[in-house]
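Putative integral membrane protein
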Amino acid sequence: MSEPGALRMRLDRLAREVAKFGVVGGLGVLVNLGVFNLVRGTTEIPMVRASLIATVVAIVFNYVGFRYFTYRDRDKSGRTKEMSLFLLFSVVGMVIENGVLYTATYGFGWDGPLASNFFKFFGIGIGTLFRFWSYRTWVFRALPAKEAVQTAESFLEQAPRQATRRQPDRV
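Structure:
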């Protein structure tokens, strides 16, 4: 395949991946904000704790969506490792997301309903950039490309034939 053709295929695959990630992530944002506002409106739980609860619910929702929709074609062999890495990077994203909300709420005193939703959403956006990179790089690893597997198989098939054709070295 030509260099521009291969690049176009990679860009197309990346665009589809970003779109699927966006669908699951967008629904996860709705779950996150919905749970956040539900907990804030119906309980006396402080804002950042309500946000942490909402983020945990969204993490569970997102894992299911990413594993069975966005990255369903990716390697499924190391499920324990996958879930551990997913949780690790999700916790880092949660710290990013809620760190923004914490700073706005307790650092600047911006704790009204509109401000808290804005900074919650802003924190989700920053955390999402980190999550996209980390999930695709470390958690939902791509299976080897078909071309690479076929090349390796053909190389392995040719190796025994070449070995039988060689003449022994004469001294």
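The mean pLDDT is 85.
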